[in-house]
Amino acid sequence: MTDSRPQAKPLATGSSPSLEASASSGPIRAVKLKHPWRNVIAVVIIIFAVLFVLDASQRTAYDWPSVGKYIFDRRVSEAALNTLQLTVYSMIIAVTLGIILAVMRLSPNPVFKSVAWFYLWVFRGTPVYVQLVFWGLLAIIYQSIDIGIPFMQPWASFQTTAALNTFTLAVIGLALNEAAYMAEIVRAGLMAVDRGQEEAATALGMTWFQTMQRVVIPQSMRVIIPPTGNEVISMLKTTSLVTAVPYSFDLYTRTRDISAETFNPIPMLLVASIWYLFFTSILMVGQYFLEKRFARGVGDRKPEKSEKVSLATGVLSTVPDSTGALPLPIADKNGGDSR
Amino acid sequence: MSDVSAASPATSVAATSAAVPPMVLAEQVSKSFGSNEVLKSISLSVAKGEVMCLVGPSGSGKSTFLRCINHLEVVNGGRLFVDGELVGYTQKGDTLYELQPKQAAAQRREIGMVFQKFNLFPHMTALENVIEAPIHVKKQPKALAIARGKELLDRVGLTDRMGHYPAHLSGGQQQRVAIARALAMDPKLMLFDEPTSALDPELVGEVLDVMKGLAQSGMTMIVVTHEMGFAREVADSLVFMDGGVVVETGVPREIIANPQHARTKAFLSKVL
Ligand SMILES: Nc1ncnc2c1ncn2[C@@H]1O[C@H](COP(=O)(O)OP(=O)(O)OP(=O)(O)O)[C@@H](O)[C@H]1O
Ligand SMILES: [Mg+2]
């Protein structure tokens, strides 16, 4: 609450210890700092925004009727669903693999460490577009996939093109690339957990795996989730590169193909953008709830009714109460209007 | 407490009867971090039900010794037994084989440890902290673990704080939860590493009271502490360590009143 400085007279009387003054004037009044410029700037921004929207709604180039026509076009909504699936599947694989890689990098086993390091070196060191092209060429490089003992008759053999369609290849390509980035995010999260936690868990007789699963990983989530949310949103947009595989049923490629037929690219760009924004908004809501879930027990959580009692004992002196007011005897409750 | 260390002057104290094996037996335990020899041939024994206070200046290896007992730290030489069982190894002939992680974890279940910085799990409430290991390590039924957890929190005086997260507890309350958490595993030995050093002075008493109650209930305890009042009043034996060796051992009251060794004198004059 650093922005709420007392301005009332008895406190503002400078350096002299105003014991007498405050004693004579009764309880101390604390008035929050006002921010008049914030409102001015907000008004200016709103005016510009309204002007832009009014102008945009009248410009023929945007072709809003076409936007309305295509936004729920079956080809478009199917493509939007494909993009969502690409994002979700590749992120699930990437997070899982990222956790495994991060744990391998932090493990005391030098073999695991080197393997993880090598993986990161390759998949972070080359562009995702190049990787996607490679995955597309997989069927040419490896015509069949054999399962069995090397140099022996394989137990099973698949034609690569039959076993892996372009959607699967796109998911693999996106996921393996993303896993390298997720590994670093997870590693940062694991390292942010105090060493004493691992020690306490070990002393209780937990195995290394239990310690990770029950103690370290849940605590690291708080650090991992915000950048992971970032990565999911980034992935949603990176799916537009899967045309390199080539997979052409994602949102961006599909809308571009439609605009190639209609010779009218701008409304299709708007259609794609609206869908991307829609998904991003949903993801942000999801992230908010996940963050809340994993913030359990951390200091910045607002104390509940029963816990407020202990505020008076000085235990929680750094935690503001739920009204956001200063823990002074009498704080100006009306001063909170500027936030 | 019988002292078998050659390095220390003979201050033999009421030795335990030979029939009952000691709870902790250290035979020439040594430990180095790189070239830094932290423990130099430590030998001592702690009888069942005994409360031993371990004191000494900073860096003398007290924490390291406690951590060796719990196999959080691997010893470089000598042998450590807890309740007659070799810690961290199995012995076949003259060779020691390191235990599988699972077996080492099983040994640790029997030993409770309380840390200077509490190390409570911040994402769990007080009760959840206490029932975590019984449920997931001992595989106790949840209802049983909860009943026992409540009983333990009650015992350390935290009946009304069970649903609180550690961030919303005072240091003294957190440390008492940590003690309850260790007790929930029904350990036969409790290790305390400076349990009150991180506490505000007015909160030290509540934690020491809990420890005193525990000592009176017959728990075997090794306590690293600078609280000489606690050592004098509660402990059965006092061990003074300096520079990785046991300098002096004996009855707390006698050592505190009349230290034999110059280094003990110098140390006691600072903490008393
Ligand atoms: N993991 C480690 N790696 C390297 N050196 C260590 C490690 N742990 C402890 N040491 C060193 O071992 C010595 C003894 O440390 P220890 O923590 O056992 O002392 P202590 O008696 O508990 O001291 P304090 O009263 O400060 O807790 C110190 O010199 C310390 O620097
Ligand atoms: Mg220590």
Mean pLDDT of chain A: 81
What is the rounded distance between the termini of chain B? 24 Å
Topology, number of strands of chain B: 12
Secondary-structure-derived class of chain A:
mainly alpha
Identify the CATH architecture of chain B.
3-Layer(aba) Sandwich
Overall helicity of chain A: 55-70%
Question: Care to give the gist of this entry?
Answer:
The complex is a heterodimer of chains A (339) and B (272). Chain A has 339 residues and is mainly α.
Walk me through this protein's architecture.
The complex is a heterodimer of chains A (339) and B (272). Chain A is an all-alpha fold and 339 residues long. The longest helix of chain A has 33 residues, at 74-106. Chain A has a two-stranded antiparallel sheet with strand order 1-2. Chain A starts with 18 loop residues before the first helix and ends in a 31-residue tail after the last helix. Chain A has two domains: 64-294, MetI-like fold (Orthogonal Bundle), CATH 1.10.3720.10; 306-339, no CATH class. Chain A contains 14 helices and two strands, in the order H-H-H-H-H-H-H-E-E-H-H-H-H-H-H-H. Chain B has a single domain, classed as P-loop containing nucleotide triphosphate hydrolases (Rossmann fold), CATH 3.40.50.300. A six-stranded mixed beta sheet of chain B has the order 8-9-10-3-11-12, with helices on both faces. In chain B, strands 2-1-4-5 form a four-stranded antiparallel beta sheet, covered by helices on one side. In chain B, helix 3 runs parallel beside helix 5 (171-183) and helix 4 (142-155) crosses helix 5 (171-183). The model of chain B is unreliable at 1-17 (pLDDT under 50). Chain A binds chain B through residues 194, 196-197, 199-208, 210, 214-215, 218-219, 294, 296-299, 301, 303, 307, 310, 313, 315-316, and chain B through 70, 72, 101-102, 105-106, 108-109, 111-113, 115, 117, 119-125, 132-133, 136-138, 164-170, 178, 181-182, 185. Bound molecules: adenosine-5'-triphosphate and magnesium ion (MG). Adenosine-5'-triphosphate binds at residues 33, 36, 38, 56, 58-64 of chain B.
